[in-house]
Design goal:
Blueprint: H1 6-19, E1 24-30, E2 36-42, H2 45-51, E3 54-57, E4 92-104, E5 111-117, H3 129-141, E6 145-158, H4 162-167, H5 185-190, H6 192-204, E7 209-214, E8 220-225, E9 228-229, H7 230-249, E10 254-256, E11 270-278, H8 294-306, E12 336-338, E13 345-349, E14 355-359, H9 368-385, H10 412-420, H11 423-429, H12 431-449, H13 454-460
Parallel strand pairs: 1-5, 12-13
Antiparallel strand pairs: 1-2, 3-4, 4-5, 6-8, 6-9, 6-10, 6-11, 7-8, 11-14, 13-14
Helix pairs in contact: 3-7, 3-9, 8-9, 10-12, 11-12
């Protein structure tokens, strides 16, 4: 339905740009890996994009995270080049500008808009991550249920310009903060200007942080974004990952959201907190006294059952699986517990009978749209199918007696092939998306497998 406030909002944006002597806008669309691709446009395009769809080269669904186009691999195995490739000529994919996402870049006052790819009928695009999440969220909305979420990210900040990091081949990585001492008030006070300036930047760009602190390893920060409606939460999470990088680069530093950048330290998480409510705003997970009501219990059952099958949507890269190891503050199986950070799924029972579930599986490298979509769809299926979860874990989740199907795959290839077998994934996210996404993960696995790395050289060069 047309937005009745569209004209006034458009007029307001144009008036602000005129006052700031700004003649351009920045557009961003998210690809399968969670990377925001975009371009600057003349402000004169804004009204046209508001009134009709635009076009963006669909190569963003035809190449990997390093901009290598998908092709037949060395043994002739077909990849996901079927959607687009040399054989299609890489035509434009349609997108629509999402007016409600408008915000202003704090430093240049240029308006920024999120776009979403759409299909020929201007509805859900089969491969667009934002479309995938919107499809799941709207299926719940049609049942009178609203989803809310909040993301939190651990990320590593280097005290070097990007050029220096690349010139030294990533071999010398100097952390911006030194030493351990997580949650340190001394370190926070020492670096107060850096912390508060980043929080101010995020607030001004409408991706407000609830909290920001230093983690227990050198250079590691953790940011918690405020709870929002689920699509808005994913929008803000992806904007935070992108624009915090540009923020630090402007300060001659580099921020990394790799799941694990060093085997000396635990990995970097991208946890997602989920809550559901009805149309009156009543919490559907209302539970207390270390018990779960039916909705929360069945949702947990769905999360335990389906998230191991859909693991690549939470752990999408080869590097992701170096984090999901025993004793590294990341789960190794789909289990759950009350306020238990050794489990994959942590139940948090707050005040006034409020309750939400923290998905601790995703790493910081994950695509927030796909994390939210997988978590929401698994909870939804659990409620619909009335799936009973196992007993909650008390104590060390790494020592829990998990069912075999709850154990996580240990490699991206194994996890992708498991996702491929999930009939429920096809129904929840669309068969075209699953086919393309699985093949993209198999491609990523093959690219890693045929690459000689430092570990191999150091281990085998002289000895073997």
């Amino acid at each position: 339905m047309p937005d009745p406030n569209r004209e006034s909002d458009l007029d307001r944006v144009l008036a602000e740009c005129k006052a700031n002597q700004v003649n351009t806008l920045l557009l961003g669309l998210t690809d399968i890996d969670g990377v925001i691709r975009g371009k600057y446009l003349d402000l004169g395009k804004l009204e046209q994009l508001v009134n009709s769809e635009g076009g963006f080269c669909n190569v963003v669904f035809g190449w990997d995270i390093d901009d290598h186009v998908y092709e037949l691999d060395v043994v002739g195995v077909d990849t996901n080049a079927s959607f687009t490739g040399w054989h299609t000529g890489y035509p434009d994919a349609k997108f629509r500008l999402i007016e409600s996402t408008q915000r202003t870049l704090p430093d240049t006052k240029v308006p920024f808009f999120i776009g979403e790819f759409v299909d020929e009928s201007l509805d859900f695009h089969p491969l667009c991550p934002r479309s995938v999440l919107r499809r799941v969220a709207e299926s719940l909305h049609d049942r009178g249920t609203h989803a809310f979420g909040g993301f939190e990210y651990e990320f590593f900040v280097l005290d070097d310009p990007e050029k220096t990091v690349r010139e030294n081949g990533f071999e010398v990585l100097r952390s911006l903060t030194k030493g351990n001492l997580g949650y340190s008030v001394v370190k926070a006070a020492t670096h107060s200007s850096q912390l508060t300036e980043l929080m101010d930047f995020c607030r001004e760009f409408r991706m407000t942080l609830e909290g920001l602190h230093f983690e227990a390893r050198p250079g590691t920060w953790e940011a918690a974004l405020a709870k929002q409606e689920v699509i808005e939460a994913a929008d803000r999470a992806n904007l935070f990952k992108t624009f915090s990088k540009s923020y630090f680069r402007q300060h001659d530093a580099v921020a990394s959201f790799m799941a694990k950048w060093s085997m000396k330290f635990p990995g970097q998480s991208g946890h997602f907190h989920l809550s559901l409510c009805d149309e009156k705003g009543t919490d559907l997970f209302q539970s207390e006294d270390r018990k779960l009501n039916d909705a929360a219990r069945f949702a947990m059952g769905g999360l335990v059952k389906y998230l191991p099958q859909w693991l690549p949507m939470l752990a999408p890269n080869v590097n992701s699986f170096t984090r999901l190891v025993k004793g590294a503050w990341a789960p190794i199986a789909a289990n759950w517990g009350f306020e238990n950070r050794t489990c994959a799924l942590r139940v948090i029972q707050g005040k006034d009978s409020s309750c939400h579930i923290e998905n601790r599986i995703p790493g910081a490298d994950s695509n927030p749209y796909l994390v939210a979509a997988a978590t929401l769809a698994a909870a939804k299926l659990g409620i619909e199918q009335r799936i009973e979860p196992p007993e909650p874990v008390v104590g060390n989740g790494y020592e829990a007696d998990n069912e075999p199907e709850a154990e996580f795959s240990t490699t991206l290839r194994e996890a992708a092939l498991r996702l491929k077998q999930s009939e429920e994934a096809d129904l929840a996210f669309g068969s075209k998306f699953i086919e393309h996404f699985v093949n993209s993960r198999l491609w990523e696995s093959r690219e890693a497998q045929r690459t000689v790395n430092d570990w191999q050289l150091q281990r085998y060069f002289e000895v073997i």
